[in-house]
## 1
Amino acid sequence: MVSLEVALRQMLVWHFSNIYMTPGRDHKMLLISNPRVCVIGAGIAGLTSAKHLQDEGIEFVVFESSRYVGGTWRYDPKVGTDENGLPIHTSMYKHLRTNLPKPTMEFKSFPVPEDMASFPTWKTYYEYIQDYTKHFDLEKHIKFLHKVILVSRVGNIWKVKYQNVLTNEEFDNEFDFVLVGTGHFSKPNMPNFLGEEKFSGSIIHSHDYREPDRYKNRRVLIVGAGPSGMDITMDVAYVSKTLIHSHHSKVPFRTKFPKHYLKKPDIKEFTETGVIFEDGSYEDVDDVIYCTGYEIYYPFLDKSCGLDITPRSIPHLYKYMVNINQPTMMFLGLIVRACLVVAIDTQSQYATAVIKGNFTLPSKEQMLEEWESRANVIRSKGRPFSDIHLLAEKEDEYYADLTKESGIDRVPPVMFNMRIKNMHMMLENLYTFRDYVYTVIDNENFSIQKYNESNHFS
């Protein structure tokens, strides 16, 4: 038997959906009385969402399968599965430092400490995340050790099934909105090369890389030249006998690597003791680390969510986040090449403004038009469709668009300006780009100076 409260809620949501989803209709969003929000994941997306929802007095719950906040920012020396048999989410490694300066890593309304290094270690930054959580008393909204196993659209409500990972007990609940904040850095994208099965050495993905000591005086092959590929290459190069780097990146890195660094093209095939490359050359190899990225993976979303998810992309997301077919579902953190913390925090503010009813999303037709415009640019340039999530040079424009539409605070252009400068410094020298201190002067400008011992940073 359905309670009066549930019946009224379903009636309100049904009314809202019929007004909201009519294609091309001149409509206004019907404010849902006391909306209930499901937030999936207690990483940066979940925590910033919790903070902004809490500020607006909106009812919500955050589901987190582990017993920790911070998502991928929490270092765990273990790999594979955790103590509860669940896959370990984090890809953090022991010597990691941020590759963006600290002003671009700051949460809204919670300044980074003055004594934090300009490019902090994972440990320092994770402590900042923990401090943010405590300062705004966010843990009271988080159901730790509860894993979301199914999200379905039934009628005009979201049905969410979740499981206590300790007892395996399952529960069902209903929500008006779903915010997906589990990110896209937990399911490794593993290549499959000819002869790999007969290779006698070790093969891991960067997701399971933790520290370089095991590679001391060994011949190590690293595959891929994305951010983790370049960073792990440098980390392992300090201890390895030979560092072989296979990639096809066209990024013009100007870093001078040590003499035992060998640049190689793509892999053709494995042998028992080494690798043959596309140019016909061969190298003996003891260990392989695939730095080949991650797959987009949301196994808890069923077909009723209206999404055709592939390992490389999610189509039909308005403003890189709103599910056009079911706009009461939003994805946080799917953007690529941006000041990710700032971008996620801004998306959380935008999502909260949607839920609060502070503005009206466009019609389905208009949202599809925006998405198709981005998709057509990618197709016309022959770029991989995974670039549908790429911000890059459009990052500042994106923040301006979100503010113009929703009324949320504008991310100052200085964030984008610092990221671009930092990117040029990385291209110049991967060994020294973190040796600089970035200081915000105003909304547009910043200063940069060489770090020296008189600066007292952690």
## 2
Amino acid sequence: MSHPDPYGNEPRGWERPESPVTLPWPDQDLDAGQWSRRPAPGPELYADPHVRPYADPLPTDPYDERGRGDRYTDRLPGAGDGPARFDGPDRGRFDEPARFEGPEHPDLDLPARLDDPGYPTEQLAPVRAELAPDDGAATTGRRPRGRRRASADRPATQQLGNGRAGRNLPAAIGVGLGLGALIVVPLVVYPLAFLPVIALAIAIGIWEMARAVRRSGAHPPLVPLIAGGVLTVGLAWFAGPDALSLGLLVTVLGTMIWRLGDGPAGFQRDLTAATLIAVYVPFLGGFAALLAASPDDGRLRILATLIAVVLSDTGGYAAGVTFGRHPMAPSISPKKSWEGFAGSVTAAALGSALLLWLMFEVAPWWGALFGVAVSCAAVLGDLAESMIKRDLGVKDMSNLLPGHGGLMDRLDSILFAVPTAYLLLAIFVPVVN
């Protein structure tokens, strides 16, 4: 009895013809160039004896939309279902960009470069559009709309009225005259009307500061700050220096209680920012109310202080533009120079010596000392606000005043000058009750 042949009736040994074998993964002993994952269908499948048929499953490749491609042999749109592109010795090479820079690929029938307008791949159209030169730019030498550059035919647009100080001078002069009239008219006509002017300036300054510090992640409560700031100024006007300190204490406590309603997250950060604003704006600004509320000569005291600050700013600007060569604090305010500082001190000292002699019959040398102290305080206030703005990453506190930025950009020097002036005038010109 004959047993069935396990090999069937097929020839054995070397006479057995080769049959295609399906492997679940590529043979590691084969060279990379002898393996093809995408054979062409039809009779040409086994034209090359070294080419193995493509079989599932293969490891999923995230770079192929069908889940079984290869990042270096992806099928491009429009390539069709032709024979494998990298059969034979070309398989496994990593210099694929050569097919776009060299001659056209014989199998895919694609242009040689991505910037060729005949490239059929829609997915690479944005790349081709970015690489392709602009026809209008090539013919006219001009950039597309919104991306123009200055050239010999079209010079850069100049902003009229901007000097070395970076200001629009006509707008700055007009706004400065308007602010001066808003201060002088109430003082001359009815001094008590100057109190609402101070309160409004303090409220706007608090709003600008709270808006600016939010860039650092702090959110100080705005309502108690504005209410406490106005209260602080009113207390200083009617009750004197002790009430000014009381107003600061009430403002800080009010912001602390108000902030408790928002929860503990960021409480310390918000309270620190609120305390800084309360001290910087309403407390220092309250000394202006103390100056203006002095009996008999309050209007003269506030005018002497404000004129000294204006002389300091004007003298510093003129000297800095004309002679400025040595930066004073380049990391804080690059446009300030030692020459400008000397001009500020000189102008304030000369003007204050004359003003205090005419207004209060104070000896000129005491008036000059008053001017020097007020000028130094004004410059320090300007530098302090510049440091705050640089720390917060803002150029101006706001764009409320054309040519000046925000109101705090004008109050920065005044806020440091009024406490200094109040102290010196209390010594040089004692208050008569």
## 3
Amino acid sequence: MSAVLTDAAVESRSPQRPDEVVGAFVACSAAQMETAARTARTAQAEWWASGPGARATALSAAAEALAAASGELAELVIAEVGKPRAEAVGEVDRAVAILRYNAQLSLVPLGHHLPVAGPVGSLLLDTRRPRGVAGLITPWNFPLAIPLWKAAPALAAGNAVLLKPAPAATATATRLQELLAPHLPSGLLTVLPGGTATGAALLRSSDVLSFTGSTTVGRTVAAASVAAGIPVQAEMGGLNASVVLPDADVAHAAKTIASAAMGYAGQKCTATSRVIVVGDQPGFVEALTEAVRGLVVGDPAEERTAVGPVIGAAAREAVTEAVDAARAAGGRVLTGGETRDPGWFVSPVVIDGLPPQARLNREEVFGPILSVLHAEDEDSAVQLVNATRYGLVTGLFTRDLDRALTLVPRFDTGMAKVNGATSGADYHASFGGEKDSGYGPAEQGLPALDFYSRHHTVTYLPTPR
């Protein structure tokens, strides 16, 4: 197990060394949640009154505190969630960049001035003000980046933050709070360890809620938030496809898709789960398989490792069960599927020959497993892309700009990448999916300020003379 959770305790364990306890914490009680929420509301009033310049300065200082602790944080991410070193270092760098970017968002205009259908000298202002306390429920796979791409814009907009991390990433979230606390009012950002009960209590204590996790849990969170009358955004699962057209650069496409599918053991909502090969391309599947075989599987602390362990026993079992089900449905395992101990390791799997309706082509596994499908033409490829309940991101590999401009608008996904990996996103651009991949407004960039703010329309009329 990567995390042990009881009614009173949270314990995170290293997925590459399950006997190693990375952190042990007391789960947040209902009384502690109420206290944290009251403290947050007091701190939020102080934070908002301090003004945008003070908020920008504080968030900039927080970014530098993270940068100064970058080596320590990378080691913690490696130990707690098994992220390969190169990606762990990259996530820390991204966390620093997110804070620096959002520090400047504190200074963007709060609204705009509209014309008034009244006497000259009147003013009509549409402004933004903070919602109050932002409740954040975050996953384990990006233990720094996802909490910060939620918390940083919430803070920039003038809110307080209550963060419930996934149990398996509690140590990283707790260290994040420790590093940020000296630069923020006391109680403005609080980490609340726990599981489902803590999440439910957090929802009841929040004025706005942001969730990232599975589709099943996300639907429940969204419904509960709507019932409670608070704004909600839920980023959920993905079953992302990459379409390879006959004119694509085979070597580039194979290498890029292999990395996007298997890097970090496929444990990203934006990982490539399906590759759709259009037309007769006899060499592509072989190139893809060889690229996957070339990825180094092993200890995430090693520089060369691209594929570390999955997060826990249940995650590894899900991959091995998916392989068995694929074989039973007529699929051919081209490579991978072997497990090894200690740690929750499973070698990356490529499967060919499954029908589109097979479970692997319809449901997310969240592990290092990739299904290869074949399409006669571009129209058939688009149908395969859209034939799932998910709609997060689609990749397209082609050298023809006209084809890209024609095909991309036909993908029922919130994002698209042309000649690039489905995995990854720019922190200053909006991030969000369609269908069962997302509910509510997009995250990141300028749209995040709108989500964490409420509009306030004010009319000023001249005094009669």
## 4
Amino acid sequence: MRKKELYAHVLDFFERTMDATETELDFQDNFQLIVAVVLSAQCTDKRINQVTPRLFADYPTPEAMAEATPEVIYDYIRSVSYPNNKAKHLVGLAQKLVKDFHGEVPSTLEELTSLPGVGRKTANVVQAVAFHKAALAVDTHVFRVSHRLGLVPKSATTPYAVEMALMKHIPTEKVAAGHYWILLHGRYTCLARKPKCSSCGLSDVCPSRKLFPDC
């Protein structure tokens, strides 16, 4: 199957079988979104959704969080991964939003990645969800599934290389949704250690299926 045909087949399958096209994180505005995404690095969305209600209730705006200290924020997020670093990032992020962006979350990649704790992946999530841009975040799920399905070449060994390869073939209007389709497929079906190949609707075109004979 040629690359163009593979992409068309995979995207058509996801479009027919998946309802979700956005993050599973809970948020009410762009500030809450970026805070939740920063917290979600190397942590499950379920855990973040358990932590953020109390945090957002007490610190609902950049102005409020900018007045806090990392030590105070740590108490709210102690159960997430790397809470010390994330507490520092959140306070610094809020302070920079207030100082440089009038308390508003910016929309460009350059501006977003200037914020503490915000890398390209986080920035792409915010661009796609908050500003409906054709931005594609590559996390561990997207990286793994893209390689297993043969959507990207083996030479795409970095998240950026995978992002560029996917962006080359996914139609602009499907980029944001495509990211979540691939991500959710990795989260619930194409698991890292034991993928559910027997119940996967893409196993017939997956070049990695033979690597998991017992799944």
